[in-house]
Amino acid sequence: MPDYPGLLRFLLAPLLENPQSLIIHQEVTAGGKKVWLRVTFQDSQKGRVFGRGGRTIQAIRQVLLTAAAIAGQSLRLDIGEAPIPKSPAPVSKNPKPIRKAKPRLRESK
Predict the structure, then answer these.
(1) CB burial class (10 A; 0-12, 13-18, 19+) of residue 22?
(2) Would you report the helix, strand and coil content of the chain in percent, each value rounded to 5?
(3) β-pairing verdict for 74-82 and 23-29
(4) Predicted TM-score of the model (pTM)
(5) Residues 54 and 21: beta-carbon distance below 8 Å
(6) Tens of pLDDT along 3-18?
(7) What's the half-sphere exposure (Cβ side, CA atoms, 13 Å) at 28?
(8) Which residues are CB-contacts of 45 (< 8 A; sequence separation ≥ 6)?
(9) Which residue from 8, 34, 1, 36 is spatially nearest to 23, judged by alpha carbons?
């Protein structure tokens, strides 16, 4: 079985400003016939990973699908964004209630 996480890290890490933010999770099911890869990274790096019109990520996906086909497996690649760790937001003592917008009626002509 190919090392899909290693191959994916090899292809994606040069595109990221912070390669340490790259998280790859792999699941193998159906007796090793199906592989599911989930990738997360910082939201700010989304444009660099996807490329113009999604060409970069399509090329990376095609490389992975070809490796899976050679190994006799099917592969699914899901891409998300990892949240950037932030300090906890201060809690307000008097939160404002949420107002619902009033429905607007259309006038008939």
Answers:
(1) buried
(2) 40, 25, 35
(3) unpaired
(4) 0.69
(5) no
(6) 999 999 999 999 988 8
(7) 11
(8) 15, 16, 17, 18, 21
(9) 8
